[in-house]
């Protein structure tokens, strides 16, 4: 599969505050399904070409591993698609983020007597968005820890892979559904005591064993802080600022 050159060009245009996030197939299916339900406008381009072809998401077929779009409005502009060989880069906006992925052309079909184009559901999808808060990666030897409080039990302690004043990502033994709000105990290196936080789950990503801190921590949870007190917010901001200074010092 070709490189995401179009996606990287977009990233450069958006500036230094931009975050690129690569997500797995499960996320790709979810995002493309939402785009099809809302008939989101999508643009596609061939590798090495700056010309963008305009289309609309139509539907997704999970059984056949395909999604369908309208014929491109600019099919006559030097675009020749070869079934099973032509790879295109798709990009679109959904829920405040720009998404992009590569896919292979799988031919034409007819839906309700209208011609559509077929493409493979990708194995991964990327999102570009700007974060409101500066995000840092905790030091391995001085971790930010998170323990979820569910059903009057404390979960195994996970480590944050990144944190900002607005939220964090942390490793977990199980996947959590988006939209859940869960109480947790958190500890940052500048504090000796744990403090209570409330986490609104944004999503879960499956980790490969090579990316997991331990075999049983096989998920990365993305969450936002909710209902933080002034003191707790200040604790997190102070830690982020401290870690940012550490990183800047290392970078010289």
Global structural class: alpha+beta
- As for the CATH topology of the largest domain, it is Pnp Oxidase, Chain A
Can you write the helix and strand succession as a string?
A: HEHEEEEEEEEEEEEEEH
Specify Rg, calculated over alpha carbons: 21 Å
How many structural units, i.e. domains?
A: 2
In spatial order, strands of the major sheet run 2-3-4-7-6-5
CATH class annotation of the largest domain: Mainly Beta
Q: State the end-to-end CA separation.
A: 37 Å
Approximately how much beta-strand content do the residues carry? 35-45%
Q: Mean pLDDT across all residues, rounded?
A: 82
Describe this protein's structure.
The protein is built from three helices and 15 strands. The protein is elongated, with a radius of gyration of 21 Å. It has a six-stranded antiparallel barrel with strand order 2-3-4-7-6-5. The chain has a six-stranded antiparallel barrel with strand order 9-11-12-15-14-13. It has 252 residues and is an alpha+beta fold. The chain has two domains: 5-130, Pnp Oxidase, Chain A (Roll), CATH 2.30.110.10; 145-251, predicted glycosyltransferase like domains (Thrombin, subunit H), CATH 2.40.10.220.
């Amino acid at each position: 599969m070709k490189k995401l050159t179009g996606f990287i060009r977009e990233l450069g245009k958006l500036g230094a505050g931009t975050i690129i996030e690569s997500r797995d197939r499960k996320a790709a299916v979810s995002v493309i399904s939402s785009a099809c339900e809302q008939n989101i406008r999508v643009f596609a381009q061939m590798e090495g070409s700056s010309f963008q072809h305009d289309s609309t998401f139509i539907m997704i077929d999970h059984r056949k591993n395909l999604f369908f779009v309208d014929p491109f409005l600019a099919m006559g502009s030097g675009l020749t698609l070869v079934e099973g060989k032509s790879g295109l880069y798709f990009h679109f906006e959904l829920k405040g983020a720009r998404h992009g992925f590569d896919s292979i052309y799988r031919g034409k079909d007819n839906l309700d007597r209208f011609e559509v184009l077929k493409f493979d559901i990708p194995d991964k999808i990327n999102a570009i968005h700007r974060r409101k808060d500066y995000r840092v990666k905790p030091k391995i030897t001085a971790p930010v820890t998170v323990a979820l409080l569910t059903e009057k039990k404390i979960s195994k302690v996970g480590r944050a892979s990144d944190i900002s004043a607005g939220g964090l990502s942390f490793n977990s033994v199980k996947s959590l559904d988006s939209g859940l709000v869960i109480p947790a105990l958190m500890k940052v290196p500048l504090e000796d005591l744990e403090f209570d936080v409330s986490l609104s789950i944004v999503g879960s990503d499956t980790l490969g064993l090579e990316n997991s801190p331990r075999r049983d921590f096989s998920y990365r949870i993305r969450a936002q802080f909710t209902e933080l007190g002034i003191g707790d917010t200040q604790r997190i901001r102070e830690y982020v600022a401290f870690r940012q200074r550490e990183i800047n010092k290392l970078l010289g």
